[in-house]
Design brief:
The chain is of the alpha+beta class. The protein is about 35% helix and about 15% strand.
């Protein structure tokens, strides 16, 4: 057999080996992270729920999902153990001490609004007699002449799409 015919198989086996090796490393890192969980730490489940760890057992974890509300989860359902400041920022909306003066300021120091309604509001009240409104009704010269000719008793002109068929 020629080495050229074996080369695609060798490359394929090498790629599979590297992919399984990286997946194993990720699983080991996740297992270590779950083993380091302690009561009082904030976590995010694989479903995206944020909670506080109350008890840690061999295969399960007791989480406080709301004040006074506890739920039992499998350890494998914990997606991430969060640092205290990150957990408080996400769940409670509090910033760390070094960012207190930048709460509602953008990068250039401008105040960033909480919602888009402040961008569309104007200081002037809406005026009902505003002449700048656009008239969206279909009016053209042909319609005006049709009305005049009907008043004279003549038959109106046909426009596109109209026919004599009844």
């Amino acid at each position: 057999m020629n080495i050229v015919t074996l080369l695609p198989f060798i490359v394929l086996i090498g790629a599979m080996f590297l992919m399984t090796r990286s997946a194993k490393k990720k699983q080991q890192a996740a297992g270590q992270m779950r083993d380091q969980m302690q009561p009082g730490s904030g976590v995010r489940t694989i479903g995206g729920m944020y909670a506080t760890v109350k008890e840690v057992h061999d295969e399960m974890v007791l989480l406080e999902v709301a004040p006074g509300v506890h739920a039992v989860y499998a350890k494998n359902a914990i997606g991430a153990v969060l640092a205290d400041d990150e957990y408080n920022r996400i769940v409670h909306g509090t910033e760390s001490d070094d960012n207190d003066d930048h709460d509602a300021l953008g990068a250039d120091g401008a105040v960033v609004p909480d919602d888009a309604s402040s961008l569309t509001e104007t200081d002037e009240p809406a005026d009902a007699s505003d002449d700048s409104r656009i008239d969206l009704d279909k009016k053209d010269e042909a319609a005006a002449t049709d009305v005049a000719s009907e008043a004279d008793g003549a038959e109106p002109k046909k426009t596109d799409g109209e026919s004599d068929a009844k």
